[in-house]
Amino acid sequence: MTDTVRDPARPAGRSLGRNRDFLRLWLAAGCTILGGHITDVVYPLVVLWQTGSAGQAGLVGFAALLPQLLVQLPAGALVDRWDRRKVMISADVGCLLATGGVAVLVATGRIWIPVLMAAAFLQGSCVVFYQLAERAAVPRLVAPEQLGSAMSRNEARSRVAALLGQPVGSALFAVLRWVPFVATAVLHLVSLAAVLLIRKPMQGDRPPPRHLRTEIAEGIAWMWRQRFLRTVIGLIAATNVVFRGLTMALMVIVHSGGGSAAIVGVVSVAGGIGGTLGALSGTWWMKRVSLGAVAIGGLIVWSVLVPVPAFVQDPIVIAVLFAANGYVGGVFNVVGGVYMVGTTPDALQGRVNSVAGLVLVGAVSAGSLLSGYLLDAAGVVRTVLALGALMVLLAMLAVLSPVVRARTGREGRLSPP
């Protein structure tokens, strides 16, 4: 693995299926991620059904997502400073208290919007800490040559959890409004039990803590010095703007065509399935295609697929397109994740992942804002064509980038053929 830092303290190679600590971490994180997706859907539903106010529902939903923007950077620094296992345990306990408390409030009919917002923000913050600690811990629990397979399984797990979150949350809400929160609390209990069974250390030696701003700045500076990494993250962040706009355009296409919201759900599921398949095949591509070729090839494929909904608005065709886009995204996430985790020093894992997460999530937020105005001002066809033009520009930038082209040979592969 030419681009991966090898740490002699990491485990010797063996089958991931026999690596109990990795399997426990994989299960634990899957439960936590699924619980987060369930409550992301249910928090607004509870408020809307109780008060009838879409505005108040939006406030609670916003509070659940706000930690992705506000908490990322300090959480990354603290994850690098603290014991990662204890961070995940504390995060599970925090999520358990938040969701359990909301379950009691909803069951007794005492729904107070400020309390729900606080609980949603607490749970969202705990999930941010948890995911940063879990991602940083993976290289400590698997052998370097198995990092690709581990990240592939993790990405597939996250895709499946995202697919299941909305339908499971909605179905449980239809049974009784407090049931989704109890189910999420149970998921966090399972996660907590699994993390408690992990015995191997999840981090190396740590230097004495310094000022939090200094540690955050160190992570940002390290990321900036990695020319290839910062270039690819910038390109992917821009594609997040495109795909957020494409998703909003899909909603408008379906609505204006007299279709139901179920069609949007089916297309989203198709995209999730494509992403899961892409994640599962990520290691296959790593062994055969260089980093630069994955980046350039994926952007070229996207530049061809993105403009199609401007000309063909058949739901089946769009579902196939979203599946294909998701497949490329799944491959990107695995290959990019392996490169970033494999090249980042252990002491900087939390901070580097938090910087990347903030940039990528911020791009999604910007995509929502910009595409909404563009759809109102220019209509669906022009908006989709503009998004396609942006994707073509991104593909051209990748092709012309010296740092990306330098990774297109055999030396740019993450795994030996």
TrEMBL record:
Family annotation (InterPro entries): MFS, MFS_trans_sf
User: What broad class describes the main subcellular location of this protein?
Assistant: membrane
Query: Is Cell membrane there in the keyword field?
Result: yes
Residue ranges annotated as transmembrane are 21-39, 59-79, 91-113, 178-198, 232-254, 260-282, 289-310, 316-342, 354-374, 380-404
Membrane-protein topology: Multi-pass membrane protein
Q: Which Pfam families match?
A: MFS_1
Supply the alphabetized keyword list.
Answer: Cell membrane, Membrane, Transmembrane, Transmembrane helix
Domain of life of the native organism: Bacteria
Concerning CDD domains, the annotation shows: MFS_MefA_like
Q: Which SUPFAM superfamilies match?
A: MFS general substrate transporter
Q: Where does this protein reside within or beyond the cell? A: Cell membrane
Protein name per its UniProtKB record: MFS transporter
